Amino acid sequence: MHFILECIDKPDSLDLRMATRPPHLEYLTGLSDKITIAGPILSEEGKPVGSLLILDVADRAEVEAIAAGDPYAKAGLFASVTIRPYRKVLPA
To answer: What is the predicted pLDDT for the residue at 91?
Structure first.
């Protein structure tokens, strides 16, 4: 089942994001078989202000575990985390 994981950064936290980026990318690389798409959410100025992942996992509990294990989350980067079920239609 697919889920959207949307994480919005706390204000003025770009330095924390950049400092934590290498372990975050390493963590996601280990989950590549579960990731349909992943990348930063950008401000109008093109600076990262959050993260968006679409995951193909067994259930919501697995998404919650992935979200909790993210080095960004462990560093306290996020102001909010939203998980939503998602149905992939295209491409087939």
So the answer is: 86
